[in-house]
Sequence to fold (161 residues):
Amino acid sequence: MDPMQGGQQPPYGSQGQYPSYGQPSTGGYPPPPGYPQQQGYPQQPTGYPQQPTGYPPYGQPMAPAYAPPPPMAQSTNGLAIASLVCGILGVSIVAIILGHISLSQIRTSNGMQGGRGLALAGLILGYIELAFGVLFVILIILGAIAASNSPQSTSFLGALL
Fold:
């Protein structure tokens, strides 16, 4: 019975109109000439092992074993700040000492402390001030030697000595 000829259509999902998916059709068009008749799919062997228990089915994500720890806030090393302040104020020896101590503490803190840039800035300022201080002392000594060798003792440096 043709479904278009009686005005009625078979109910949805009935097997009368179309073959099931993957099933060889019994009617329809014949294969083109020169091609052999296609056979149905072979049955799957029954010797496959079952999926082991304790694992989720394939395609489903596993739950994480643990949650990652929240990121910890990095604190600034206080000695690094003090090194920078001493370098700005001109206390070069203290800036150098505090800068080296703070760099050591920051290196051994495993990322818990910051302030490496502050410590380096304090160290650099301290070393520059120390160099200028040493240069200034050398110039004073050279000036004093030059003034003591001159016959005029009324110079400014001669009055200081």
Summary: The longest helix spans residues 116-149. The radius of gyration is 46 Å. Helices lie at 78-89, 92-108, 116-149, 156-160.
